[in-house]
Specification:
The protein is an alpha/beta fold. It contains 7 helices and 9 strands, in the order E-E-E-H-E-E-H-E-H-E-H-H-E-H-E-H.
Length: about 190
């Protein structure tokens, strides 16, 4: 066994290298796993207290202007959205599905779901935008049993929304506008 010091983007790493008779090389870390948060949202809580005014999420608008959200503001919005989700009484057999591309609202909704332990799944926008038969979208929706369906823009995703509402008529459809209005209730 040879101890190799590997310098990468993630800092020095200690690995062991084992060469098998057939030429197969196995690498494994010799560093002990460091402490990690129980939930990813604990990092958001941590950084909102350590660096509250640093940018956490940012996105360019249609005019190439940056919309930025600090750690502190993101945590406040996540908590507000999380309370809204709790008020929807999502059962343990239901979830949230996200049909849209990445956005600040997508991120906030996903973090709010994680914050309170509600399953959510982003589904490839291609399943909603390109497909004519929605077979893949239907499979994903049936696997997730959505109580809430998020789309960035209801006009852009109107066909997918109609398909999803036929499968799950009781599901609540939310757009970026809805998430923003919920997130500003405490502002």
């Amino acid at each position: 066994m040879t101890l190799v010091r590997n310098r990468s983007l993630f800092g020095p790493q200690k690995t062991s290298r084992v060469l098998q008779d057939d030429g197969t090389v196995y690498y494994s870390s010799t560093d002990l796993l460091q402490a990690y948060p129980e939930k990813i949202t604990q990092k958001l809580i941590h950084w909102s207290s350590v660096s509250p005014d640093k940018t956490f999420l940012a996105q360019r608008d249609h005019h190439s202007k940056w919309n930025c959200l600090t750690y502190k503001n993101a945590l406040l919005k996540v908590k507000t959205i999380a309370q809204y989700l709790l008020n929807q009484h999502i059962s343990d057999t239901e979830s949230i599905v996200i049909l849209s591309e990445n956005s600040i609202e997508h991120g906030l909704l996903a973090l709010a779901a994680m914050y309170i332990g509600i399953p959510y799944s982003p589904i490839s926008p291609a399943y909603s935008m390109i497909s004519d038969d929605f077979i893949k979208l239907g499979h994903c929706l049936k696997a997730m049993t959505p109580k809430i369906i998020f789309v960035q823009d209801q006009d852009k995703f109107h066909r997918a929304i109609q398909f999803a509402k036929n499968l799950f008529p009781q599901a609540l459809v939310m757009s970026a506008e809805d998430v923003n209005s919920i997130a500003t209730l405490e502002d």
